3-deoxy-7-phosphoheptulonate synthase
Amino acid sequence: MIVVMKIGSPEAEINRINEELSNWGLTPEKIIGKHKVVIGLVGETVDLQPEQIQEVSPWIEQVLRVEQPYKRASRQYRQGEATNVLISTPNGQVAIGENQPLVIVAGPCSVENEQMIVETALRVKAAGAHFLRGGAYKPRTSPYAFQGHGESALELLAAARKVSGLGIITEVMDAVDLDKIVEVADVVQVGARNMQNFSLLKKVGAQPKPVLLKRGMAATIEDWLMAAEYVLAAGNPNVILCERGIRTFDREFTRNTLDLSVVPVLRKLTHLPIMIDPSHGTGWSEFVPSMAMAAIAAGTDSLMIEVHPNPKKALSDGPQSLTPERFDKLMQELSVIGKAVGRWPQSAVALV
Ligand code: PEP
Ligand code: MN
């Protein structure tokens, strides 16, 4: 349920209501919106009537039931307001959200060595990217495929962060690595294969860095939002949803089917920011530019593009990786669409 407070409600009264509702065994959460304060209520609310809560204070404007199973992730929970996820990077704060300029994330699938990660960082930064994304721990279908360099790759990401000033995004596969990853990463990625690893979701929800939650390859939109709910319920409000393609029947020409319809659908259902990953979504570098442009036209808040200095030699996902030159050209192409929708950044840094 959500309790909408009247404009100008005294803080002491809001705190008193919170206390009273806690005594009822509920978990009230104060949400400060642009115009109003809302108290979100999660817990055993099925037997409660909105009128009972309404009686607690004359400052309560209305009490609404959140019908969706995902409560905190629902658009209604924030009274229709979008969440901006604010991320601190060496270059300043970057905001990802519905009313913000587009944020571009780029980098190789795997961190292979210092030279390649630093070179990629500098190249994508020069082209206008805001984040470097590279995997230290890689979820591979085959146990014989390159698994990532692990902890030593985290050090290389830290070096690339220092040299470029870009924020770092990297994936956690196993909770035992989380503390080390959190030290280096500005955003922690949970990959498609772990989207429903609920114990991992609880743990990333209990650490302070924003979480990039990729859609499972066979996950419905509701599964995905419920996965986000785990992170939110564990206390981390900063979740970004990343569509990376789902499994359909064609595997001959595309690796996955990039479901761009999630952009308007998520916009309706949730306040959380949206990222589109056309690299995993298509599996082929030649298809990435058109789908990146389409994603901007559809209204995405951010893009994730795989870039490798020498895709032919990449240890993972070479066929879908752009060269730095192609990425540079793509950024110019994207700026045309980005400007047309009023979201092309001079800089996405320090907007708030
Ligand atoms: C990746 O981002 O490199 C990756 C493994 O992605 P996904 O989890 O979407 O397959
Ligand atoms: Mn990859």
User: Anything to note?
Assistant: The longest strand covers residues 27-32. Residues 109, 135, 139, 191-193, 214, 244, 280 surround phosphoenolpyruvate (ligand 1) (CB under 6 Å). The longest helix spans residues 324-340. Residues 94 and 204 are 20 Å apart (CA to CA).
